[in-house]
């Protein structure tokens, strides 16, 4: 892979305590999903909103991250995607971005590793020379039936991946961002509704909302906007690798729209927030969640 690094061995987070089989192991592969998510097939009407810009997208190999990478490419941006170890998925994202006529770099590794964060930023510095958009999208989640069974290892791992990596990558990337730059963080509807079986995950997503609001104020004088997107139930590889196989048929049907969303229904939020169309928006959260009212 262009700019790729060897994948470090990482500890396996504590598994779910319900004993039910998952269709996939974490972090999940898009090339093994049935049906596959919709992230690149639908027609996307681009308008050059990101022409000539450069972006880092964490978790860009599949799901929402891949859909963002493709939409950014169609809007004229070069992208660098990070991913854990899903090499086939990452190669497909690279192919689709390049098919859209833009450059795509990829780098494998654990964002919870401080040295890897620095490698990501150094690759962007070396190949792009600057950065216009940072999309903090990578995350993990693990179902636990009881609060008491969330072990310290899982709690720390979930926060390290979902929040600490986002915090530190934003710090590392900040010197590459200049006035007009944008940071976009992926939070979740669980930050607003909560989820009794994803308590540690939901806690990280709540932290991301507070982080987004605080950082937006801190960077306003520099002309750098900070916003977030809080997707609802979206059909991505994280879902079959998280939830029991017998629950997937009902996934997303508790929303007012009675269905899960697709990654390409979420990606336009990230295009908007990265573009000049959102020049007067910072500290805000967009909610592509199937009609759930969260008042957030």
Automatic annotation (TrEMBL):
<keyword id="KW-0560">Oxidoreductase</keyword>
<feature type="region of interest" description="Disordered">
    <location>
        <begin position="1"/>
        <end position="42"/>
    </location>
</feature>
<dbReference type="InterPro" id="IPR002347">
    <property type="entry name" value="SDR_fam"/>
</dbReference>
<dbReference type="InterPro" id="IPR020904">
    <property type="entry name" value="Sc_DH/Rdtase_CS"/>
</dbReference>
<protein>
    <submittedName>
        <fullName>NAD(P)-dependent oxidoreductase</fullName>
    </submittedName>
</protein>
<feature type="compositionally biased region" description="Basic and acidic residues">
    <location>
        <begin position="17"/>
        <end position="42"/>
    </location>
</feature>
<dbReference type="GO" id="GO:0016614">
    <property type="term" value="F:oxidoreductase activity, acting on CH-OH group of donors"/>
</dbReference>
<dbReference type="Pfam" id="PF13561">
    <property type="entry name" value="adh_short_C2"/>
</dbReference>
<comment type="similarity">
    <text>Belongs to the short-chain dehydrogenases/reductases (SDR) family.</text>
</comment>
<dbReference type="InterPro" id="IPR036291">
    <property type="entry name" value="NAD(P)-bd_dom_sf"/>
</dbReference>
């Amino acid at each position: 892979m262009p700019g790729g690094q060897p994948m470090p061995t990482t500890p396996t987070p504590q598994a779910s305590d319900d004993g039910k089989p998952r269709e996939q192991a974490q972090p999940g592969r898009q090339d093994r999903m049935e049906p596959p998510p919709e992230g690149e097939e639908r027609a996307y009407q681009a308008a050059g909103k990101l022409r000539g810009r450069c972006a880092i997208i964490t978790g860009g190999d599949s799901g929402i991250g891949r859909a963002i990478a493709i939409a950014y490419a169609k809007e004229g941006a070069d992208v660098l995607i990070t991913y854990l170890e899903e090499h086939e998925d990452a190669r497909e994202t690279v192919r689709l971005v390049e098919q859209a006529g833009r450059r795509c770099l990829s780098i494998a590794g654990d964002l919870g590793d401080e040295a890897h964060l620095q490698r990501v930023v150094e690759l962007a510095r070396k190949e792009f020379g600057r950065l216009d958009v940072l999309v903090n999208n990578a995350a993990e989640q693990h179902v636990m039936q009881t609060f008491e069974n969330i072990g310290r290892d899982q709690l720390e791992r979930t926060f390290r991946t979902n929040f600490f990596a986002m915090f530190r990558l934003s710090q590392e990337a900040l010197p590459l961002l200049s006035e007009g730059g944008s940071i976009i963080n992926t939070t979740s509807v669980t930050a607003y509704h909560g989820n009794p079986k994803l308590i540690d995950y939901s806690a990280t997503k709540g932290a991301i909302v507070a982080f987004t609001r605080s950082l937006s104020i801190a960077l306003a004088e520099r002309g750098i906007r900070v916003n977030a997107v809080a997707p609802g139930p979206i059909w991505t590889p994280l879902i079959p690798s998280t939830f029991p196989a017998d629950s997937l048929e009902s996934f997303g049907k508790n929303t007012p729209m009675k269905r899960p969303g697709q990654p390409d229904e979420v990606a336009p939020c990230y295009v908007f927030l990265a573009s000049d169309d959102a020049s007067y928006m910072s500290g805000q959260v967009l909610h592509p969640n199937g009609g759930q009212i969260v008042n957030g």
